[in-house]
Amino acid sequence: MYEILVVEDEPSLLEMIQLNLELEGFSVTTCNHGRKALEWAAEADRFDLIILDVMLPEVSGLDICRAIRQQSDVPVLFLSAKGTTVDRIAGLKLGANDYLPKPFDLEELLLRVHVLIRTKEKNTVSSETLKIGGKEVVFSTFEVVDLASGARQLLTKREIELLQLFQSRKDQVVSRDEILGALWGNDQYPTGRTIDNYILNFRKIFEKDAKNPLYFHSIRGVGYKFTLPE
After folding, report:
1. What whole-number distance in Å separates Cα of residue 215 and Cα of residue 217?
2. Based on the domain organization, do 102 and 134 belong to the same domain?
3. How far is Cα 63 from Cα 17, in angstroms, rounded to an integer?
4. What angle do CA 171, 158, 70 make, to 5 degrees?
5. d(Cα 137, Cα 154) in Å, to the nearest integer?
6. Residues 113, 133: one domain?
7. In the chain, helix, strand, coil percent, each to 5?
8. Which residues, including other chains, have CB under 8 Å from residue 46's CB and lie 6 or more apart?
9. Which of 56, 121, 189, 221 yields a CA-CA distance of 20 to 30 A from 103?
10. Which CATH number characterizes residue 135's domain?
11. What is the pLDDT of residues 10-51, one digit of tens each?
12. What are the C-alpha distances in Å from 165 to residues 46, 146, 181?
């Protein structure tokens, strides 16, 4: 299920957008304050689309978009009562993907949402394999292949999803919350220990010395980092 963050400070409009997006089958997180939305910017990659009002309390949508672009390339759709050419250009220059002036037609909003989601899908490069040391992960078959011996080992669907997440965020610290949001979504969250167990298993499979990992690192109090040293 696709995850959309909607940032809008007008309660009736926020409720209307949320309701109609959910009717379209999307999972929707809402926010009605600029300061809170700025906090969400650090976790922008957990969403497939962010719908962002320009005029918000304390922190403007333009500043939030700027912060998002420092972290993520998630599609951003601006909503704004300021619909002049200058305003639209300002938003697009900050990295927004689209700009819809208020008042807008609901059908047009939904159409633009679907277009942006499809565009994100096309632009997402998902490698079929991932080489980690002397082993190669084949995502389509859920296998780890030892390149020296040819021995094969099966992984679970969740392990494959976690490896794909780490691949997309290579050399970056990924928080526990990001992992939970990306892999478990609205399902019941596991404990932090569950994620630790996944990392321990990856170390057993891929690391020569699990106590001194080269690839899967725990960042105390934050999360994890996946690296592929030369």
Report:
1. 6
2. no
3. 22
4. 30
5. 10
6. no
7. 40, 20, 35
8. 3, 178, 181, 182
9. 121
10. 1.10.10.10
11. 999 999 999 999 998 899 999 999 999 998 888 888 899 999
12. 10, 22, 11
